[in-house]
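Bumping my old thread because nobody answered last time. Still need a sequence for this structure:
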């Protein structure tokens, strides 16, 4: 969680207060959304030696349906995507879309993008 929080904080330029005329880097926000998506997929698909899910907050069985984990992080990913699109539209640019790699987990740079 500390890594995810640090990455999101870096995407928002380590700023706590925002005003109407403030700018954010749209590619950082987009990359952050993809990184959160990859990290959450990795966490949700991790299994122990017996093949049972390590994440107890994400269950879809006959006994219990608990998708709160998916819903909360889906909301965060959606908000980051929307904010990156708003920033891209504001600057008249487009966000670079990357092809999702199936076999390899790829984290996109957040702090290396300078502005």
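Sorry it took so long. Here it is:
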């Amino acid at each position: 969680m500390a890594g995810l929080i640090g990455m999101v904080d870096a995407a928002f330029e380590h700023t706590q207060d925002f005003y109407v005329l403030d700018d954010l880097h749209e590619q950082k926000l987009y990359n952050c959304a993809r990184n959160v998506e990859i990290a959450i997929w990795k966490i949700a698909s991790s299994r122990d030696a017996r093949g049972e899910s390590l994440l107890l907050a994400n269950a879809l069985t006959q006994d219990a349906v608990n998708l709160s984990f998916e819903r909360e992080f889906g909301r965060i990913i959606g908000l980051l995507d929307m904010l990156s699109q708003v920033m891209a539209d504001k600057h008249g640019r487009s966000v670079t879309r990357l092809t999702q790699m199936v076999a390899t987990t790829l984290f996109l740079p957040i702090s290396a993008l300078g502005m």
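The beta strands are 59-60, 65-66. Let me know if any region looks off to you.
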